[in-house]
């Protein structure tokens, strides 16, 4: 997984001719890597977006004030035959990880043993998302995520390994954009156990892809490219034999150029894995700093064509993001088990601690939130599997929501366990107590708020999609580069759109006392969702009218808008699921009601904070802090040494470090 995501969304749609995608959808970057203006950086990210909506989106409609339950109700069902086949694999995977994988040893040694790689390969775990025609298992998104949840519950490092390999590594981009020849050449090897990695981030390039410095120079004979650059934070980078590398192809006569995706052999001459990075959590993670020096890549290894790299990366992440919430849901389930058993057994002040209100609130939150996260994830997977819906907003929402809420779940679990929550599993075992690795879970989960799009970037990305309908009709009005003619046309479009749309925000089904009555005890929650959806749309419209082109800088406001949308999406999902399962799982109606009651409290607070906040004064304070006005506040401590830079510079050329690459599979016979 890439620790920093390749996107900085903009709330305006300004572009120029050089940076707009051409008819083939190619998106070049500015000429000078690393030397771009704020405007150019936004334009590169904007041009990489998928701009069309050719399939319905529940999330998109929700932000427009429309509760389209028909898009998720009735609750989607997996194909029975495929489900049976997947359950057989999940059973074998469960047996293997429960008996053959020592998660504590992986944590202690910071290393996944070779035999675990080989055992997972024999099971077919490296080909879960690869089609059966290429030697993979061809699992649905739903069952793939359940497999990640299962494996990650034993060792989150294994979950990250399998996820980075299949969700954003070579298999997914080739599945979506590769040629048939590329699929047949690479996918059988990856399904058999070779590992792949995704290399985008650089030492000085995270969420701002316009500054990408790695280059891919076409060779004079036209047979390929030579890649030069350094890539940071490549999950699986030390063990991968196949890489997806994002590099800039220079413009030239007859060549559009731009950021391009390549499949690169991990053992190619000129590649050096210079470092294996170490982190707060996920200690078994094989994450690298990798240097490329004149690495030859044949032209047949370009994925999708020159200049399409960012669009490929963003499209891959739509379903690729579902793997992270799968790990979060697994953590929630694990936390609920530990919290329930501990709180029932541990007695303080004459009663089990779970019966004391202070702890009871935490137990209730963990259970309700786990149900909400699981339901959101399952719904997104099922929608992705039937391929009739555009889930770019929904997938981003569940990634954002689950990563934030799982962190809160872990924090509450530490508090429930008290001192034992802060103690390592090894220390607990040493004195004869159950080795519940709660502190490890806290450490392992923290990265999910950063992986594949930090919370802050996800807020902006989702906000950009949420206001897309407005920008498509009125974007030129607030675009400073638009001329009078474009503004006039936009004004006419906007007038027609808002004349139809605004009246729909005044009243709706949520105001009818019998609205959604078919959902029984959950009907009131859906009426609240419908009313809140319209209120959210009105608030967004008012904010755009008030701030216009400055809206993109109101990041705290946009973040709250997105957080409200995430809660409303979750409430909708749990109501529909619980209603569908009311006969087989009547307790789920109770969980859905509990979740919605808690979510409504959060939504009310977020609506209040839209307009009652300290955003402006916080920005002013930050400018003063950056200017050094309050440095006296830093007195009295020893700060970190200042003899090294915050971002290490690098220079082109061959590596001077020994390679730390690791190969885990025996050579083919």
Label this structure with key terms:
669 residues, alpha+beta, four-stranded mixed beta sheet, globular
Describe this structure in words.
The protein is α+β, with helices and mostly antiparallel strands and 669 residues long. The chain is built from 23 helices and ten strands. Helix 7 crosses helix 10 (309-320) and helix 21 packs antiparallel against helix 22 (587-611). It has helices at residues 38-47, 58-63, 80-100, 103-109, 114-123, 141-154, 156-168, 171-177, 180-191, 309-320, 323-345, 357-386, 392-417, 419-422, 425-430, 438-446, 455-466, 468-478, 484-501, 523-547, 555-580, 587-611, 615-626, and strands at 196-199, 215-218, 224-235, 242-249, 258-265, 271-276, 287-298, 302-303, 347-348, 351-352. The strands form three sheets. Strands 1-4-5-8 form a four-stranded mixed β-sheet. The model is unreliable at 4-32 (pLDDT under 50).
Give start-end ranges of low-pLDDT stretches. Answer: 4-32
Helix fraction bin: 40-55%
The largest sheet is: 4 strands, mixed
Overall radius of gyration = 25 Å
SS summary, helix count? 23
Strand order of the largest sheet: 1-4-5-8
Strand content: 5-15%
Oligomeric form: single chain
Number of strands: 10
Instruction: Output the structural class.
Output: alpha+beta
Tell me the distance between the termini. Answer: 31 Å
Mean pLDDT: 91
Shape: globular
């Amino acid at each position: 997984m890439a620790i920093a995501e390749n996107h900085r969304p903009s709330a305006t749609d300004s572009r120029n001719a050089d940076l707009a995608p051409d008819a083939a959808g190619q998106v070049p970057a500015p000429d000078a890597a690393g030397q771009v203006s704020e405007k150019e950086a936004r334009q590169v990210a904007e041009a990489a977006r998928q701009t069309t909506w050719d399939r319905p989106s529940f999330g998109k409609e929700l932000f427009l004030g429309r509760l389209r339950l028909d898009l998720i109700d009735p609750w989607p069902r997996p194909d029975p035959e495929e489900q049976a086949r997947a359950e057989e694999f999940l059973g074998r995977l469960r047996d293997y990880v429960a008996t053959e994988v020592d998660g504590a040893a992986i944590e202690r040694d910071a290393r996944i043993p070779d035999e675990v790689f080989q055992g997972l390969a024999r099971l077919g775990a490296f080909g879960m998302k690869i089609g059966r025609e290429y030697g993979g298992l061809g699992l649905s998104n739903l069952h793939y995520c359940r497999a990640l949840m299962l494996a990650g519950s034993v060792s989150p490092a294994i979950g990250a390994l399998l996820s980075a390999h299949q969700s954003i590594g070579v298999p997914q981009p080739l599945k979506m954009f590769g040629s048939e020849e590329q699929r047949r050449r690479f996918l059988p090897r990856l399904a058999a156990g070779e590992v792949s990695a995704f290399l985008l981030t650089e030492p000085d390039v995270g969420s701002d892809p316009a500054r990408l410095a790695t280059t891919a120079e076409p060779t004079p004979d036209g047979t390929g490219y030579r890649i030069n650059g350094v890539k940071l934070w490549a999950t699986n980078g030390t063990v991968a034999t196949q890489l997806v590398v994002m590099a800039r192809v220079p413009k030239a006569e007859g060549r559009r150029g731009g950021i391009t995706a390549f499949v690169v052999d991990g053992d190619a001459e000129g590649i050096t894995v210079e470092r294996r990075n170490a982190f707060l959590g996920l200690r078994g993670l094989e994450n690298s700093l990798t240097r490329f020096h004149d690495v030859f890549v044949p032209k047949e290894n370009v994925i999708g064509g020159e200049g399409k790299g960012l669009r490929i990366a963003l499209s891959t992440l739509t379903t690729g993001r579902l793997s992270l919430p799968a790990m979060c849901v697994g953590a929630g389930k694990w936390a609920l088990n530990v919290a329930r058993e501990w709180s029932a057994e541990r007695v303080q002040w004459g009663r089990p601690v779970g019966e004391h209100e202070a702890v009871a609130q935490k137990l209730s939150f963990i259970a309700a939130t786990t149900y909400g996260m699981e339901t959101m994830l399952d719904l997104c997977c099922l929608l992705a599997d039937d391929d009739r819906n555009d889930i770019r907003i929904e997938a981003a929402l569940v990634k954002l929501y689950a990563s934030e809420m799982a962190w809160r779940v872990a924090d509450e679990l530490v508090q429930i366990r008290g001192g034992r929550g802060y103690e390592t599993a090894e220390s607990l075992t040493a004195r004869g107590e159950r080795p519940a690795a709660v502190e490890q879970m806290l450490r392992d989960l923290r990265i999910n708020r950063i992986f594949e799009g930090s919370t802050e970037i996800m807020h902006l990305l989702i906000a950009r999609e949420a206001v897309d309908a407005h920008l498509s009709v009125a974007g030129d009005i607030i675009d400073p580069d638009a001329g009078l003619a474009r503004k006039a046309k936009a004004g006419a479009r906007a007038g027609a759109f808002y004349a139809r749309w605004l009246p729909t925000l005044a009243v709706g089904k949520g105001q009818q006392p019998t609205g959604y009555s078919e959902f029984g005890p959950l009907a009131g929650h859906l009426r609240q969702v419908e009313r809140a959806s319209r209120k959210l749309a009105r608030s967004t419209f008012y904010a755009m009218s008030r701030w216009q082109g400055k809206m993109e800088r109101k990041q705290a406001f946009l973040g709250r808008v997105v957080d409200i949308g995430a809660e409303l999406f979750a409430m909708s999902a749990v109501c529909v699921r619980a209603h569908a399962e009311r006969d087989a799982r009547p307790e789920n109606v109770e969980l859905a009601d509990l979740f919605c009651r808690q979510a409504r409290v959060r939504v009310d607070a977020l609506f209040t904070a839209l307009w009652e906040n300290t955003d402006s004064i916080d920005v002013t304070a930050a400018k003063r802090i950056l200017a050094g006005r309050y440095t006296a506040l830093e007195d009295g401590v020893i700060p970190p040494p200042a003899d090294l830079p915050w971002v290490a510079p690098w220079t082109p050329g061959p590596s001077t470090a020994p390679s730390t690459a690791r190969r885990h599979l025996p050579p083919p016979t």
